[in-house]
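Q: Sequence in, structure out?
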Amino acid sequence: QVQLVESGGGLVQPGGSLKLSCVASGFIFSASDMNWYRQAPGKQRELVALITRGRSTHYVDSVKGRFTISRDNAKDTVYLQMNSLKTEDTAVYYCYTVLRGVWGQGTQVTVSS
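A: Exactly. Output:
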């Protein structure tokens, strides 16, 4: 059974940092491009960052220079390091396996003073 489990969300003040993790199981993680998406209340889900099997990365313009996506194939885990957080980063963050087309359950990130 393909499963993605996110963790690491929480409440942080503007300018703070969080690191999200997504642990995968049930498929060959190293063979999959992996994406992080987010969905804010009343908005469509948007792609935030992706990392390919070959570790190439891509970011949406609004997070470039602040967020870093990485992966550890030995741990079947993809990460999203988020620095200099802004209130507009508040959303539920989801990871997604491109290979299997499966979403995680999401983790809430709230940036507020």
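The chain is about 0% helix and 50% strand.
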